[in-house]
């Protein structure tokens, strides 16, 4: 018996409502609204996050209320998004192709810019230099939003960007209600909420051996801000009340490798990735200098019940991890069969920068948990092609 196909627009309202409730991102909701007129009344108009960002009057952080600069300058919140793009499933000619991972930065003026997926390196005039299409209609492809990366730019009262070297902002994370946590000035952490006149500094007393007020990473997870220091001691901060609570510490029997800590989330879990390196003493112009070369990663998972970072069966997780300059994220391998290899970490580090012209992924490498080896992207096209060059099914300009 020949099976009949049900069109998406013909699905019952109850089933559609269930699908709508599971939409994770604004881009997914917009795509569903655009696919059928019937869906438009079912999916309420989404808030314009660009307009909301533009309306935020974020004071210069970490300055006193008497500072005259606060009257002339403020911060503008800038958002970038990482997407995975692939042909529509009905396109049989491209059914076996890989996904293309891109990061797009949107300024508060509405202009967009192509960025390196794992760093904050931008590509000026990318459509000409890199032969990219000047216009990319996301409705022509299957698109999945993977992560967001936020930055704070100093602007004047007319929203013109000005020199921001006076503050070193290392990372910014944002809640759904635009509460903002910023890591700045070599590991300090502060929070700003809409309506606050000043930023609130997060100070913790964890003992002298753990550099209590020097943090290495921050993340927004399950409606809370999480912070971790070099010892792996992790706390969470309530976005509304700024109450600080203990979240986890490494298993004392297992310990934590000496390296740089990153917090990475999935739909269900929070992970701690430690990038370890060797110290290489080199010489340039007869002057010695130290270079840190990444060699491996240690991976732990948060045991929320016991407040501890623990080892786990990585094979059963079947995930791939991405460690970037502004954001870290993970994806299930099953979502990207034929594109990503499981049990590995894609990351960016200046030690792997290619001397050729810059292109997306030019500072990236991959680490395999199976054999504990690190490889430069440029040596393995099967890996680097997720960032560059654009796949054949992307229509390039002449």
Sequence-ordered SSE layout with sheet pairings:
Elements: H1 13-21, H2 26-35, H3 49-55, E1 73-86, E2 100-106, E3 112-115, H4 126-129, E4 142-156, E5 169-174, E6 180-184, E7 188-192, E8 200-201, E9 215-221, E10 224-229, E11 234-238, E12 244-250, E13 260-265, E14 270-284, E15 287-303, E16 308-310, H5 314-317, E17 319-323, E18 328-332, E19 344-348, E20 364-368, E21 373-376, H6 381-384
Parallel strand pairs: 12-16, 17-19
Antiparallel strand pairs: 1-2, 1-4, 2-3, 5-6, 6-7, 7-8, 9-10, 10-11, 11-12, 13-14, 14-15, 15-16, 17-18, 19-20, 20-21
Task: Please sum up the structure shown.
With 398 residues, the chain is mainly beta.
Care to describe what's here?
Pfam families: Beta-prop_KIB1-4 (PF03478). This is F-box domain-containing protein. Residues 5-54 form the F-box domain. The chain has 398 residues and is mostly beta strands. It has two domains: 15-46, no CATH class; 49-384, no CATH class. Helix content is 10%, strand content 37%. It contains six helices and 21 strands. It has helices at residues 13-21, 26-35, 49-55, 126-129, 314-317, 381-384; strands at residues 73-86, 100-106, 112-115, 142-156, 169-174, 180-184, 188-192, 200-201, 215-221, 224-229, 234-238, 244-250, 260-265, 270-284, 287-303, 308-310, 319-323, 328-332, 344-348, 364-368, 373-376. The strands form four sheets. The protein has an eight-stranded mixed sheet, with no helix packed on it. The longest helix has 10 residues, at 26-35. The radius of gyration is 22 Å and the shape is globular. The protein starts with 12 loop residues before the first helix and ends in a 14-residue tail after the last helix. The mean pLDDT is 76.
């Amino acid at each position: 018996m020949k099976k009949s196909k049900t069109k998406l627009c013909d699905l019952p309202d109850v089933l559609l409502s269930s699908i709508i409730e599971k939409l994770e991102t604004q881009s997914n909701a917009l795509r569903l609204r655009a696919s059928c007129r019937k869906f438009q009344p079912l999916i309420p108009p989404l808030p314009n996050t660009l307009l909301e960002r533009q309306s935020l009057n974020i004071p210069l952080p970490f300055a006193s209320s008497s500072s005259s600069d606060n009257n002339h300058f403020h911060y503008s919140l800038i958002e970038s998004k990482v997407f995975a793009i692939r042909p529509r499933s009905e396109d049989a000619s491209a059914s076996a192709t890989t996904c293309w991972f891109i990061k797009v930065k949107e300024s508060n003026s509405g202009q967009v810019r192509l960025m390196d997926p794992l760093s904050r390196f931008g590509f000026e005039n990318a459509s000409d230099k890199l032969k990219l299409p000047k216009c990319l209609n996301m409705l022509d492809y299957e698109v999945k939003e993977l992560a967001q990366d936020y930055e704070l730019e100093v602007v004047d009262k007319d929203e013109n960007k000005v020199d921001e070297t006076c503050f070193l902002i290392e990372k910014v994370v944002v809640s759904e209600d635009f509460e903002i946590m910023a890591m700045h000035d070599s590991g300090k952490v502060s929070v700003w909420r809409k309506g606050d006149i000043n930023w609130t500094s997060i100070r913790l007393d964890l003992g002298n051996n753990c550099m209590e007020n020097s943090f290495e990473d921050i993340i927004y997870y399950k409606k809370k801000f999480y912070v971790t220091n070099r010892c792996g001691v992790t706390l969470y901060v309530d976005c509304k009340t700024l109450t600080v609570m203990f979240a986890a510490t490494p298993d004392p029997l297992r310990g934590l490798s000496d390296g740089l800590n990153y917090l990475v989330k999935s739909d269900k879990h929070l992970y701690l990735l430690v990038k370890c390196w060797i110290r290489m003493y080199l010489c340039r112009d007869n002057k010695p200098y130290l270079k840190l070369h990444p060699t491996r990663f240690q991976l732990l998972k948060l045991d929320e019940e016991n407040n501890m970072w623990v080892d786990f069966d990585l094979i059963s997780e079947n995930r791939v991890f991405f460690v970037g300059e502004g954001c870290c994220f993970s994806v299930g391998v099953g979502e990207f069969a034929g594109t990503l290899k499981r049990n590995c970490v894609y990351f960016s580090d200046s030690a792997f920068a290619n001397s050729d012209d810059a292109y997306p992924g030019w500072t990236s490498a991959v680490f395999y948990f199976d054999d504990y080896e690190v490889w430069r992207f440029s040596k393995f096209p099967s890996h680097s092609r997720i960032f560059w060059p654009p796949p054949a099914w992307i229509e390039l300009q002449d």
